[in-house]
Write a structure and sequence with these properties.
Elements lengths: L9 H8 L2 H4 L3 H13 L4 H20 L9 H12 L4 H20 L28 H10 L5 H16 L3 H5 L6 E4 L2 E7 L5 E5 L2 H14 L11 E3 L6 E5 L2 H14 L10 H12 L4 H8 L4 H6 L9 H4 L5
Antiparallel strand pairs: 1-2, 2-3, 4-5
């Protein structure tokens, strides 16, 4: 399913994309199910996740001989309990959220009258600290130094890591940048990041990030290609770049490969640079309020999840145990 699909194309493809439990309820139900994903959810990652969740739920119902009109709250509760046996609480809560939102959409479309998931409670999940692996200051420096910068691909890798590290950017926001989104204002250069919900977040470029991005743009010949992707895919093993935007999957593979080469044992991911940057900023007397603003978080509680300044337990403290 792609963004270009419209409700007009649902009839010939309905059997392939709409769960049988929904399709058997009629054309209106099938179309309403389809438009929930095409018209109601704009984020492609959320769309894909919710589509998988909906397919799994209705397959569960179908396996138990339930039709759309038969599904009650206790069926949803039983499904949630089953998921909780093998899934973490956040994943179960995401499944439940998808079912609730989909049923609300079906109600508005006059397909069903009640939402059986509305009263169902998900598993309790309280998060006080994020799980994203964080690099130490030395590890982050070693990683950047290990990238030789002798060709456009290595310069791209170093620049991408620097943007995420020094501007607290999500990998999706960094990869979504065009060349024009790195721009001068006054005496400094800035990054324009496309954040969640279609928001634009402008961040001044740290002098090291500016140095790395400048070197990359010059080597890749991107200076006059303002409306094209800033971070691009590599062409095989030629060490040259193509025209297409780099994907999240390719970025993750690159980060893992660069970490191994730098001898970093920590199992990092693309999001690690955002968490590392925030933690390092707070370690050097930065304020939570400013970190929240720089990271474009709606709530300081979210920013606090990235604060790992209390993670370091010194050997002296451990040796106080006198058993």
């Amino acid at each position: 399913m792609t963004d270009e699909r419209t409700p007009a194309t649902i009839e010939p493809a309905a059997a392939a994309i709409v769960p049988a439990v929904v399709a058997r309820f009629g054309e209106n139900a099938a179309e309403r199910f389809f438009t929930f994903f095409t018209d109601n959810i704009r984020n492609p990652n959320t769309r894909a996740a919710y589509y998988r969740n909906a397919q799994r739920f209705f397959a569960y119902c179908g396996d138990r001989g339930l039709e759309l009109r038969d599904i009650k709250s206790y069926h949803v509760s039983a499904y949630v309990e089953e998921l909780a046996q093998t899934m973490a609480a956040p994943s179960v809560k995401q499944h439940l959220a998808a079912i609730r939102m989909l049923y609300d959409w079906l109600i508005v479309g006059q397909v069903v009258e009640i939402n059986p998931a509305q009263a169902v409670r998900g598993p309790r999940h309280v998060v006080k600290k994020g799980k994203t692996p964080v690099l130490t200051e030395d590890e982050a420096r070693d990683l950047l130094k290990s990238i030789d910068g002798t060709d456009p691909v290595s310069l791209r890798d170093r620049a991408l890591i620097a943007v995420c590290l020094y501007s607290f950017a999500r990998i999706e926001a960094a990869l979504g940048m065009d060349v024009a989104d790195y721009y001068p204002q006054g005496k400094r250069w800035w990054f324009r990041l496309k954040e969640k919900g279609g928001k634009h977040h402008d961040m001044p470029a740290h002098h090291k990030a500016e140095e790395f991005v400048d070197a990359y743009i010059q080597a890749a010949g991107l200076k006059d290609q303002k409306k094209t992707p800033l971070f691009r895919t590599a062409i095989g093993k030629t060490r040259t770049l193509g025209d297409r935007r780099m994907s999240r999957h390719a970025a993750l593979k690159m980060v893992q490969r660069r970490a191994r080469k730098a001898g970093i044992a920590t199992a990092i991911c693309c999001h690690s640079f955002r968490a590392t940057g925030i933690t390092n900023y707070l370690e050097h007397d930065g304020t939570l309020e400013k970190a929240q603003q720089m990271a474009a978080h709606e709530s300081p509680k979210t920013t606090k999840l990235y604060d790992r300044t209390a993670d370091q337990i010194t050997l002296d403290e451990v040796e106080r145990i006198s058993i």
